[in-house]
């Protein structure tokens, strides 16, 4: 099948590359010329495991093309996946101007049937706005079209696997013609495929992300309680997680959720509910709990070091989660300024995100970047862990201890066993493991 994908962000790039991998002919439309050039050369502007290899393979096979012309994209195929950004507006709602632009341009240019598919996360009933826009700009041209919602559930860091082997596929369609196209497109997928109306599909996406954020905030509150009563949050999560109705995933306590999706989507969902006369106070609390994680962590740093002034601290992990170089709404972006404000001298290390971080936080007298985790801890009064990169699980901890001035570790992601750390001679502080 021929497919057009508009927007080469995480979702668009993964959609384009994966559909091409599955044998479809794909044209990816991207506005930013620099990005187009990079992609054509087979270079991926973000770090995502496996993406570059797959991009190159499909460019070479001629199944994937990249263009900056939306017009070309619209003429290329009947199926147009809208994967453009939906950033946050000042009032917390999603800014849908890029979605509107694709709908408008498609309507102006189309001369035959088009299926417009929302893949970006959008507020419920956005499909209606897309339809209204298409109607307006068609200017009574008699060309058939459909609008559908097919939300994407992939995670950064495991985007390709999540796309190719999803837990489910959700498709909100209104016509038999559109449904047939999706049936063909997803024929090879071995997972439940749920057909709904578009509004339901749109809501499933927002409700899922907010639920996952709620799960994390919930376990973080339980973690606080564990510390007070001397219980172990990892075991509590295991014990809860075996219940199939609960599930163990997304019950990892720590510094809370960041990234380009959860913070924006939870806010947009609250706003959307409010606009429709529903008070989603539960989610406001979920957000509040998440914001407090930073302070909880700072309390641990302060209580283990007393004063931070002039102390050298090593920080491991800057990305909002492992296996990505993405630092959007990462805990590190909030903690680093707080630590600097209290007078700490920081040496930062991250396997992939240092370049992005350095752009926002340039090196200075009190802020240095280390080429590896060991250099970062040299002479440090404490090591702070903000992201659970696998690399940190395999470091030589005895060497780390010897390099440090004081063997204090404040681990915001619970990557080590407290008993092992104690045996190695560390003073180890983690999240919710009071035993
Ligand atoms: C999230 C969803 O998981 C995807 O299903 C969705 O498609 C995506 O948003 C999106 O809407 O585009 P992502 O933001 O890439 O994916 O990353 P997650 O793996 O969900 O992690 C989000 C945050 O939660 C990270 O900061 C992570 O450290 C934190 N987290 C996750 C926890 O603190 N504890 C956990 O148990 C799990």
From TrEMBL:
Positions bound to substrate: 153-156, 205, 250-254, 258, 321
Top EC class, one word: oxidoreductase
GO biological process: polysaccharide biosynthetic process; UDP-glucuronate biosynthetic process
EC number: 1.1.1.22
Catalytic activity entry: UDP-alpha-D-glucose + 2 NAD(+) + H2O = UDP-alpha-D-glucuronate + 2 NADH + 3 H(+)
InterPro entries: 6-PGluconate_DH-like_C_sf, NAD(P)-bd_dom_sf, UDP-Glc/GDP-Man, UDP-Glc/GDP-Man_DH_C, UDP-Glc/GDP-Man_DH_C_sf, UDP-Glc/GDP-Man_DH_dimer, UDP-Glc/GDP-Man_DH_N, UDPglc_DH_bac
Keywords annotated in UniProt: NAD, Oxidoreductase
Active site annotation, chain numbering: 261
Binding site for NAD(+): 35, 86, 121, 156, 264, 328
Molecular functions per Gene Ontology: NAD binding; UDP-glucose 6-dehydrogenase activity
Domain UDP-glucose/GDP-mannose dehydrogenase C-terminal: 314-418
Pathway annotation from the record: Nucleotide-sugar biosynthesis; UDP-alpha-D-glucuronate biosynthesis; UDP-alpha-D-glucuronate from UDP-alpha-D-glucose: step 1/1
Protein family membership: Belongs to the UDP-glucose/GDP-mannose dehydrogenase family.
Protein name: UDP-glucose 6-dehydrogenase
Organism: Thermocrinis albus (strain DSM 14484 / JCM 11386 / HI 11/12)
